[in-house]
Amino acid sequence: MGKHDLALSSVMSQFSSVSIKKPVLAWLIAISALSGVATWMAPLDFFSTDIIPLVVVGTVFALLLVVVLGLAITRNQPMRVIIYRLTLLIWWTVLVCETIFERLGDSTQASESHFSVQAYSEGIVWVLAFLALATLSLQRPQYLRCLFSGLNKWITLFALVCVFSVAYTPGKTYAGAWAFKLVLVTLLLQLSASVLAGIGDIVTFLKVSLWGFFVLTVVPAVEVFGDPSSAFEGVGGRLNTLPGPDALTMTGALLLLLSVILYSLEKNRVMIFTGFVASIVMLLSMGKSAILASLFSVMLFLLLQKQLGRSIIVLLGIGAIAFGVLSLTPVAQHLESYEGATTLTGRTVIWSDGLAAIKQKWLLGHGYQSSYFDTVVGHLHNGFLEVTYNSGIIALALMLVLHFMILRNSYLAIRDAALLRAEKPYDREISRAYILAVGSLALYANLTINGMFNATFGGRPRSPFMLFIALFLLVNSLRRYIANKLGSEVADERLEPAWVPLGAPARS
What is the pLDDT of residues 78-107, one digit of tens each? Predict the structure, then answer.
């Protein structure tokens, strides 16, 4: 047998080692059928040049799936690694598609089930992602049995309550689409968490998320500067981006925090660049609550590690960028003319009206995403009020459980990692675990502070809410990993004798 035959035989054996179950073939046939039905039911005006982004995203997504799967198989990697990498690819695609298909919403048209081509395009990407997830689920169906066990049940129950409340919302099609994405993200992250195997996998997830938030931050900023003369018009001197300056400030703030966390983990200078870009966009957008949340969470992360010097450097760096932004752009005019401090830019009025409406339907709420139709601004600018208004007191109770569990697991992870680090101060894996534990608390602080003034969590499952769900599952995995590590260290200590008699042979 020649060398080429041997190589072909080796590749074929590797492909055969990754067995594809028969239901997967059935799913592929179903995907083709659903694609045909979706094309047939789409409105005629859908087939225009506006679908070019969808064609590009769909093609790139399919190619990346094939490339990731092909590389994993040819390298003879285990199924766990293949599934994890594919879930990360799906996660990144769903994360960034909200800016690729960004659009201005119209609640009146949405209530009548009239949507733009961009909205249909983003929905199709969600369907493609769900079908890819369903195929992976057939390879690892055991994670589905854990949806209602352990801590996983809380996020599953929350998603189900939101889905149930679609039945009585004003715009069922609009709310149903977002509920579908919420279920997609919940299942995707639970599958991803089921194959996590250690600190390295968590770091990889944060890296993928960082580059997702980099796209979410940079693309809108680049688009708005396509016409520099109007870049700061219409929003009082802030960056006039399509998702709105407050939303862009939040994504920039999260990108900055992820950059700081990953730099602490790996000292990669690329993270200095991403943090620099994040700071510029964040300050140009000038969402005040998001900037305060960013500064607090970054300082919390560094000070809990007793890195006073680095925290001063970061503050000075952000201060220098702020000086440049205020000196060279109209953002300074926005701050000078700002007069909304007493009402928190009208939020106190929104909260008062929202509380009055919540009292009318406090048990089940007004229906998932109903605040989009019932309020002028589209949401209540507070995550807890948003949840209660839409899905009632039951959903609020579940959301409070999610917050409590993140705080509890972050505390336990920090405590146990600190104990391990005290025993083995030069162990790199333990140090990384401690940094991740502190970083998790910082991410929670950022999302929660933002959630007090914006619908960061509990409303539409956009990027901040997606990261909140991911944080809930990642912190749980990190806490269990550190607890197991601490348990093994204690077990090793118990095996050591309290004293060794003179002349006794040393243990090897």
Answer: 888 888 999 999 999 999 998 888 766 655
For 257-284, the pLDDT digits (tens) are: 999 999 999 999 999 999 999 999 999 9
Closest residue by Cα to residue 281 from 325, 333, 243: 325
Tokens standing for residue 199: 């600190």
Q: Residue 334's pLDDT is what?
A: 81
Cα 303 from chain centroid (whole Å): 25
Task: Show the tokens assigned to 47.
Answer: 């087939």
Q: Measure the CA–CA gap between 174 and 111, rounded to whole angstroms.
A: 7
Supply the Cα-derived Rg of the chain in whole angstroms: 25
- pLDDT: is 281 or 501 the higher one? 281
At 314 the pLDDT is 92
Q: CA dihedral in degrees (259, 263, 264, 266; nearest 10)?
A: 140
Would you state the pLDDT for residue 318? 94
Q: What is the per-residue pLDDT across 103-160, written as a single tens digit (0 to 9) for each? A: 666 555 555 566 777 888 888 889 989 988 988 888 888 999 889 999 999 999 999 9
Give dist(CA 269, CA 366) in Å, integer. Answer: 48
d(CA 368, CA 455) in angstroms, rounded, equals: 13
Residue type at 378 in one-letter notation: G
What's the whole-number mean pLDDT along residues 175-197? 95
39: amino acid identity, one letter: T
CA distance 490 to 497: 13
For the chain, counts of helices (H) and of strands (E): 19, 0
Residues 6+ apart with CB under 8 A from 365: 165, 358, 388, 389, 390, 391, 392, 395
Query: For 427, what's the count of Cα atoms within 13 Å in the CB-facing half-sphere?
Result: 16
Alpha helix positions (H), 225-266: 245-266
Q: Which two tokens stand for residue 226?
A: 């396509």
CB 356 within 8 A of CB 389: no
- The number of beta carbons lying within 10 Å of the beta carbon of residue 318 is 21
Instruction: Decide: 383 and 374 in contact? Cβ < 8 Å.
Output: no
Contacts of 19 (CB under 8 A, 6+ apart): none
pTM above 0.70, yes or no: yes
Question: Among 219, 244, 202, 249, which residue's Cα sits nearest to residue 57?
Answer: 219
Give every CB contact of residue 456 below 8 A, 6+ residues apart in sequence.
250, 383, 447, 448, 450, 464, 465, 468
Could you tell me the residue ranges of all domains in the chain? 1-139, 150-171+178-195+346-485, 198-329
Quote the CA–CA distance of 209 and 203 in Å, as a whole number.
10
Residue 379: CA count within 13 A, CB half-sphere: 23
Q: Average pLDDT in the 237-245 region? A: 82
- Helix, strand or coil for residue 195? coil
Cβ neighbours of residue 97 under 8 Å, at least 6 residues apart? 57, 122, 125, 126
426 C-beta neighbours (distance < 10 Å), count: 7
Rounded to whole angstroms, the Cα distance separating 352 from 358 reads 10
